[in-house]
Amino acid sequence: MGRTFKINKGVNAPMEFQGLKAQYILYMGLLLLSMLFALVLMYLVGLNFILSLILIGAPGAFGAWKIMEMNKTYGENGLMKLSARKRLPRVIRFRDRVFVKRLKTLNKLNHVQ
């Protein structure tokens, strides 16, 4: 009889919970935590509990829907790629040729070695 080994097939798989992937799990958790904090705050102030639920439930449902939509649209890494793309400059302008000349000399030096 040979040995039997367990193979863990989900080692490199992205973390997923109820369809939410990667950072969207954190966003949903923060949304739920902020909703709970707002509900407790409204209750301590003295607002009616049912009114507090309605005032928190509508924006909370919209937030949850928006997070699920972003999860479906952008996927695991798409939102980070989108934010990185927004930070890239559209145009690079040179006021003089000194920078380009330095690049050419550096390029020649790197090819010689």
Automatic annotation (TrEMBL):
Pfam families the UniProt entry points to: DUF4133 (PF13571)
KW Transmembrane (keyword) present: yes
Spans traversing the lipid bilayer: 24-43, 49-68
Record keywords: Membrane, Transmembrane, Transmembrane helix
Descriptive protein name: DUF4133 domain-containing protein
